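Quick one, tokens below. Sequence please?
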């Protein structure tokens, strides 16, 4: 068969590739997981220069049902991240804390329920005001400005710079990836909140939650950082062949060489045996349900193999590419109420 369409050719080529580092149930799971984590770290091309966090509180605001502390910290030498920590009014002592990662939006203010641009109202209506819903549920929340988005990007009118200007691609020239940088910032954020907000944060019950591009960052951060007790990636976990390779996606989704070694279902096994809730929309046209189910079945098979089948769940929302808080939160609470971290 002759193929003259280059995209069709590369998709056909991918369809015949079995990922080189796919888990085989004849393997020792924990030895495989360590090797796979090392390979994923290599592929993500994470920043590797540690530094002082130079933590600084910018402002504190009191709202009717919660307190918000706006702060900043140094993630790598010279690069600072803007963040906000929310404490529910009823908080007493150390509390489960949710890291809220917005997707391709105008910025982290969407997680905080603030409207700065016209499109923010639709995002908030689609359940992306993660931090506000979190404190409503009685948990602490923290959100950050992701690289190449919001105030961390240069696009006009709040449009994500990675989406409009391909800014996230410049980092490839330095042997880095946009996703790797975002994962690094999430791990550094965990360093910061467990140190500077220790009076509020239950370090054994850290949850990472995000939708779309925020779900992607949530997923990869959870694959690598075992301090994340529960991972809730939404509208992002799907086979590469059915999503990222099949249609246009923001260039920040692409990790050089990853399909050679893993599919997303293979990577999700790195989160085991910790809690994992994959959220999707049954009508999501850029992360199609068939690819989501294919990925989740692989993940679930490994959880079952290691005796932790009840630690993962697939939540299907009745709609498209958005978050489904009313469907996801009952499962989040269920997992939070199950035992202590050592018993995950």
């Amino acid at each position: 068969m002759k193929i003259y369409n280059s995209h069709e050719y590369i998709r056909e080529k991918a369809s015949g590739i079995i990922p080189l580092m796919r888990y085989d149930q004849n393997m020792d799971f924990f030895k495989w997981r360590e090797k796979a984590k090392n390979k994923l770290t290599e592929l993500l091309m994470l920043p590797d220069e540690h530094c002082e966090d130079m933590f600084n509180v910018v402002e504190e605001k009191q709202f009717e049902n919660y307190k918000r502390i706006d702060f900043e910290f140094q993630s790598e030498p010279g690069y600072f991240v803007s963040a906000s920590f929310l404490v529910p009014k009823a908080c007493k002592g150390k509390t489960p804390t949710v890291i809220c990662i917005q997707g391709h939006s105008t910025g982290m203010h969407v997680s905080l329920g603030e409207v700065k641009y016209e499109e923010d109202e639709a995002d908030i209506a689609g359940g992306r005001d993660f931090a506000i819903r979190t404190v409503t549920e009685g948990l602490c929340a923290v959100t950050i400005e992701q690289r190449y988005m919001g105030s961390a990007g240069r696009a006009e009118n709040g449009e994500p710079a990675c989406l409009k200007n391909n800014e996230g691609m410049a980092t490839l020239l330095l042997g880095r990836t946009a996703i790797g940088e975002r994962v690094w910032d999430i791990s550094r954020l965990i360093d910061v909140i467990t140190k500077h907000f220790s009076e509020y944060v239950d370090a054994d019950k850290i949850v990472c939650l995000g939708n779309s591009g925020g779900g992607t960052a949530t997923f990869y951060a959870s694959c690598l950082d075992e301090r994340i007790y529960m991972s809730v990636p939404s509208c992002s976990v799907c086979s590469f062949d059915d999503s990222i390779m099949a249609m246009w996606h923001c260039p920040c989704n692409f990790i050089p060489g990853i399909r050679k070694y893993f599919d997303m279902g293979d990577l999700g096994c790195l989160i085991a045996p910790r809690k994992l809730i994959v959220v999707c929309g049954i009508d999501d046209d850029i992360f199609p349900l068939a690819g989501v189910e294919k990925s989740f079945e692989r993940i679930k098979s490994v959880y079952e193999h290691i005796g932790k089948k009840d630690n993962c769940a697939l939540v299907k929302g009745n709609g498209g590419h958005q978050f489904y808080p009313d469907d996801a939160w009952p499962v989040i609470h269920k997992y939070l109420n199950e035992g202590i971290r050592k018993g995950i």
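The chain is about 35% helix and 20% strand. Strands lie at 56-62, 66-76, 79-88, 95-101, 140-144, 201-211, 228-234, 275-281, 312-317.
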